User: Fold Cysteine synthase A from Tropicimonas omnivorans.
Amino acid sequence: MQIRQNLADAVGNTPLIRLNGPSEATGCEIYGKAEFLNPGQSVKDRAALWIIRDAMARGQLKPGGTIVEGTAGNTGIGLALVGASMGFRTVIVIPETQSQEKKDMIRLAGAELVEVPAVPYKNPDNYVKYSGRLAEELANTLPEGAIWANQFDNTANREAHIEGTGPEIWAQTDGKVNGFICAIGTGGTLAGVGMALQPRGVKIGLADPGGSAMYSIYRTGEADASGSSITEGIGQGRVTANLEGFTPDFLAKIEDDEALRVTFDLLKHEGLCLGGSSGINVAGAMAMARDMGPGHTIVTVLCDYGTRYQSKVWNPEFLREKGLPVPDWLEKDASDL
Ligand code: PMP
Assistant:
């Protein structure tokens, strides 16, 4: 019998899928780690599980306890679902600008959702800082206690990728992987996979969207967050604790129109319905392939499922409003068949 004991046991061990268009366009083997196949449909289920297990092991999270977190959405979904399967309550603080679909899913998953205005990190009412204060309050008032997951600076997040994602990629490619690239949200995925694979000779790249300072921080040491992006869950303005001790070998700045064209092609030609950060990652993998030259094997992350962004990435009106490309076929409906 092959039985998982609860939902938490179904997190990870995702397939690696050949991205045929990007591979053929570059002469490299480009593979996507299908993180959208996790139970909560995103890579963040991994961090959620490791943060919960770590807090339990430390005795900070006790039966019936509450998990509090500030999140762009996916970590909230992961914590709510994995938390429920292990008997914990979840309270999620989210910037109100995140997609309605993610907010609805967090509520559906049984978490309490607190929406706050999207303000910069240095503002005390920023969603991350707000969630930290709320966790402290609840820890002092709830009889079963509460913890702050603190995904940005809690390195249990990157452990999920040092112990899970990185070694999985190594095993799935029989150690033939030459490069790995993805964007930074908390940095858990990039630094974690980087720490697992860099010592084995794998080149690690950062794919950075507009409006994020990480490209310039690694290039020049100065934080320049110019530009903007519609992608959710990625972009960062500082070296989080998860990023400490890690340095990427290759840097790519990826604009939304390029990433969106890749995202649209992946659905149209390969049946992969993904969110915007996956497009940034695959476009980054193509940039890395061109830099390394043909014949290399490059892995990236397919972070979350596209239905989470039907009102944004997959909505012609939203794209037009933002001056972004809209493929003809996205406008078609059944009457065009
Ligand atoms: N893509 C999406 C859609 C995300 O929600 C996140 C997490 N915020 C990431 C990518 C980045 O992952 P990480 O936090 O591990 O850097």
Summary: Residues 42-44, 72, 74, 183-190, 232-234, 275, 277, 303-304 surround 4'-deoxy-4'-aminopyridoxal-5'-phosphate (CB under 6 Å). The beta strands are 16-18, 29-34, 66-70, 89-95, 112-116, 146-148, 179-182, 203-209, 250-254, 297-302. The longest strand covers residues 89-95. The two ends are 45 Å apart (CA to CA).
